[in-house]
Amino acid sequence: MKDWVTRKYTRECIAKNNGFKSQDVILQSGGMKNTGGCDNGTETTVTYDNAALKRMTVKGDKTIRGIGKSGVIKGKGMTLKGHNIIIQNIHITELNHHLVWGGDAIYIQGTDNSTTAMKNIWLDHIKISRVGRQFITTYKASTDSMTISNSDFDGNTDYSASCDGHHYWSFIFYGNTRFSMLNNYIHGTSGRSPKIGGDSAANVVAHVANNCWGNNSGHSFEIGSNAWVLAEGNYFTNTRMPLYNKGEEGALYVAGSEDECQSLLGRSCVPNELVNSGNFSSRNGKTALETIKSVPTFVEYTSDATTSDSEQQQEQQQEQQQVQQSAAGTVKPSAETSQSSIQASDVESMWGQTTDNFGVGKLD
Questions:
Q1: Is 50-353 a domain of CATH 3.10.280.10?
Q2: Which segments constitute the Pectate lyase domain (predicted)?
């Protein structure tokens, strides 16, 4: 969406004088001719923290886990490079949020010089806020098994491309990527929440289930070419555009009253729920499900919104996943973490009640 960051839009944004500021842009190679979307820009001098542009590297077989609310990383994000990595109960914040290209919180582009997809990546009970660029970015070889769960992605900011205090640059999933987003709270954003596919080298298959989007002034899902997505059991409240509806590229199945999952996946999909929100509908839905079928963990997913038998099946599935993930480090999730009792419609209240750790729901 080029006109979100053009000089014309920025000037209109500034003219609103509504108490919010627009972002400036850190020039990339090529100077004013390569600003990443702005045209006819005016050069100015900006001040920023260089540390946010040089992320720390987290190699394989590592667990980084915060204790209580002391695990706050200010001014520096992470590049993950290796298999079997757990990032849990930390808050990444203050990454030059006044500047486009100011810093990504978590960046993944594979290992072995970006030629090999990383395995067993788990981002759980994390919080990300006040970033200059993306909360999470995947690229190149990326990861073929990543779960993003129980996390708080907070887009509230003083500086935004949409000039309304909502962060526009939220998630970009490019590369050869397979991932799940489960039980997360995404709020205060205005775009790319998430952006999946849209790059010629992308091959992204995603399962997005039981998340809550709240107070999002622009679009949430942006589905591009070479993306296949199943969205089920999600809750949208005060979200103007759950799906950016320009173009017909990519494949998205949005679970609703008519359930095609049973015939293609062998199970039912949980309908999404929208309150005071825009339209959210499938695009090339059958194609999406046919591709989702190739990923066993997506097919085997069960919702705790059904019977106690399915609850038990889900707990068993999660236990199996946690045994695999525990090889990444010394931390094995507690019993409470493994219980998937949070419903998407309750995520906002659960998040608000959580005081002892980051993310959604209790960690310990």
A1: no
A2: 21-242
